[in-house]
Q: What sequence folds into this?
């Protein structure tokens, strides 16, 4: 029951109040994989330039991440540089250099075409559709996008929505896509446009899952120290999809739990720069954090009773 | 085990994208009482001018709200006028006329001095201290405040913190009081300054409770239609304190449940202008909404297991 991700493999330069990095491995496919691989093996489709530090990728392979779909192209790797505000609540993009990502045409190795669980990271929706064409019989397809595609390729994006199961986006994107500022109405809008479910990420406020059967909310894990929010959303998707793939259970109760694994992975992502925190997270720590979420939100309605 | 509230009794004029009101009953004491009285009788201490519409107060008396501590003074009632943004996420105060509230000196009727549960609504911290002096042996005292007092009467406020059990404030106030933008560090700061617990309300994102034993998060109830956010925080406090007073149970598990009652009452408050929604909420509807919170956040970690 393989899990496939297609997305960017980047070199990120990030400035936060706590320090900065230069050309650190990042991008949606790496954040997703670093998180998901704690739960289930991952197959990655992406592209890097000849300048990409291969040592970083080798370390990921050792964790069950199959990079057989990562092409090395002539040219420079995708680079992103951003600066966060003092409280990390907003960020400014200082530089984006697409490099080899500009000509990215995802091609799945034959072995990847049997993937049952697919995550289409934030790339051009035409390419996302192209990836779907190459997967034989996926059991669950989830997809991310961003404001740029919502504005510039809305029609293709709407076509894509009819072919996916879960849309996983943030609140700003949900509002822009639906044209509705109320997040629950925005979620309902998505459900009427194809997907069977929608996950809306709200950063430090957690995330919601809405489908025909339920509305579920998971908070963000309470952290007194946050170093770098970059990639938290992709790590969330990695936790969500990793749990779904390892259990193969699409029941509402298990999707709730997948949301909690997503939130756990998002919380790890922000505790260090880039994907570094995943270097030392093990499965026990993942399970401990999931239990932490239980302590955080559970309550017993039976108590006290009605007088 | 009586529940006492001291706070403002106002006439609010509110403009939202969905309509506007003029001189509608409001103020912290009324929002608190309208919510709390669904769970437990409430004693109110406050002041109104001779112009206050007594019919509104009579309707509250019929619901178990004892207005024996509401003084009628010569002069105009406290009036507040505000306008909300299109998505209700921010508001502008257009006018504040203190009227008789400017000279408010809370005096507890003898019967009120035996109160076991006390909520000090947002008034001058000197007056809040004065109320505490009049209560003989309270079992739990909770307190609200606002940025104005944090700036202008910080020393008195810090003195007050040493005499209360729970501080119930919003995230902006918590950040300003503690000088820390991280909400969890801000909560911890409060715990080192006297209170045994702190509730931080985050509007549409819910609320957290932190004490020495736990950190609990309750989301806001998912509403597709919100009409008027005014008073939601005081209704939250009313639900929290009402549940504590009716159960008399200060255990961590019951305080979690009190938070959920708080969130339920906050969600009712915003569904109509002013305190009107509480005219038709009954206890069954309250319990149904609390069950709704359970459906919203509960998950079972046992599912799927660790491979």
A:
């Amino acid at each position: 029951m393989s899990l496939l991700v297609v997305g960017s493999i980047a070199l990120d330069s990030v400035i936060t109040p706590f320090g900065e990095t230069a050309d650190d491995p990042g991008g949606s496919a790496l954040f997703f994989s670093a998180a998901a691989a704690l739960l289930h093996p991952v197959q990655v489709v992406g592209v890097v330039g000849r300048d990409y530090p291969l040592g970083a990728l080798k370390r990921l392979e050792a964790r069950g991440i199959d990079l057989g779909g990562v092409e090395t192209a002539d040219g420079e790797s995708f680079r992103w540089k951003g600066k966060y505000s003092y409280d990390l609540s907003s960020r400014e993009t200082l530089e984006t250099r697409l490099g080899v990502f500009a000509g990215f045409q995802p091609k799945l190795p034959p072995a990847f075409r049997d993937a049952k669980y697919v995550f289409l990271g934030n790339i051009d929706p035409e390419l996302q559709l192209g990836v779907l064409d190459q997967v034989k019989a996926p059991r669950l397809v989830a997809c991310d996008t961003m404001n740029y595609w919502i504005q510039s390729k809305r029609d293709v994006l709407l076509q894509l929505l009819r072919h996916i199961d879960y849309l996983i986006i943030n609140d700003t994107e949900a509002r822009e896509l639906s044209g509705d500022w109320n997040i629950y109405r925005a979620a309902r809008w998505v459900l009427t446009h194809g997907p069977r479910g929608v996950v809306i990420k709200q950063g430090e406020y957690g995330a919601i899952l809405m489908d025909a059967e339920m509305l579920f909310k998971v908070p963000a894990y309470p952290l007194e120290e946050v170093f770098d929010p970059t990639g938290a959303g992709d790590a969330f998707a990695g936790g969500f999809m990793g749990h779904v793939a390892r259990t193969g259970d699409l029941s509402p109760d298990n999707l709730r739990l997948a949301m909690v694994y997503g939130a756990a992975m998002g919380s790890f992502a922000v505790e260090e720069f880039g994907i570094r925190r995943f270097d030392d997270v093990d499965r026990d720590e993942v399970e401990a954090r999931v239990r932490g979420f239980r302590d955080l939100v559970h309550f017993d309605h039976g108590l006290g009773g009605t007088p």
